Amino acid sequence: MVYFVGAGAGDPELLTIKGKRLIDSADVVIYAGSLVNPAVLSDVKSGCKIYDSAGMHLEEVLAVMQETEVQGKTTVRVHTGDASIYGAIREQLDALDRMGIPHEVVPGVSSFLAAAAAMQKEYTLPNVSQTVILTRMEGRTPVPERESIEELAKHRATMILFLSVGRMEELVERLCTSYPKTTPVAVVYKASWPEQKIVTGTLETIAEKVKEAGITKTALVTVGDFLGDTYDLSKLYDKTFTHEFRQGLDG
Ligand code: SAH
Q1: Among 25, 40, 136, 248, whose CB has the most other CB atoms within 10 angstroms?
Q2: What is the pTM of this model?
């Protein structure tokens, strides 16, 4: 059996109880050493083999999983945040299917959620934006043309950019094709880690501030008026707004 576990954004206490239980009872753990906090592996059982996937090809990762399976043992593949976001999990799942190895996926606290918590902000403010776009600028891995920054910016929704902080100037220029220059931006570096940093500004000022802070990676760029102070009150908790469950309509 292979379990894919989302390790959360960094703070080991953001691991789910299920993820922690699986890691602590694993025979083999494969994790991305550069992004996952090694502290999430602090209670692995003695004899657990730990591999850092940073230096491994897909085939090598799969070979370790297969060998473990043949021995009737359990592999836990630890991903940063949640594996469904830029996790390269799909190719592993499909390969395991072809190899006939069963697998299960355990969700994790993605960095974009840890970033909102760090900022104490809500991405979906009433009458500001009810849409969150998670995306990235193209780099060595391309992005489909219809999802270019310029296309997505047209919505002026809450936008969260992964893997893009290294090219702030270009990013800002492309966002400014639709967002006003005064739009607030917050860059969250290493959300939930002890070295977490939050840099705030506007599209006009943020590139310079990020440069001054020396942030070049492991950060999210969050953009939109959700960072401002103007919004409508939630209808959900409005005493004049009746709904099916005053008892608690959350979904
Ligand atoms: N699956 C991960 C994302 C992997 S892609 C998740 O759900 O969060 C790696 C990118 O995610 C980094 O380049 C950075 O943009 C972002 N990232 C990961 N952890 C982060 C953190 N703790 N704080 C801010 N950004 C983070």
Answers
A1: 40
A2: 0.94
Q: Given its phi and psi angles, is residue 36 left (phi above 0), alpha (psi -120 to 50 degrees) or beta? A: beta
User: Options 3.90.920.10, 3.40.1710.10, 3.40.1010.10, 3.40.50.720; which CATH number does 2-106 get?
Assistant: 3.40.1010.10
CB of 190 closer than 6 angstroms to any ligand 1 atom:
yes
pLDDT tens readout for residues 71-123: 999 999 999 999 999 999 999 999 999 999 999 999 999 999 999 999 999 99
Q: Which CATH architecture has domain 111-227?
A: 2-Layer Sandwich (3.30)
Query: Which of 77, 80, 165, 217 should be mutated for ligand 1, with most atoms under 8 A from CB?
Result: 80
User: What token pair was written down for 35?
Assistant: 């992004």
Ligand 1 centre to CA of 13 (Å) is: 17
Placement of tokens 């939109």 in the chain: 224
Ligand 1 pocket, residue 191 CB under 6 Å: yes
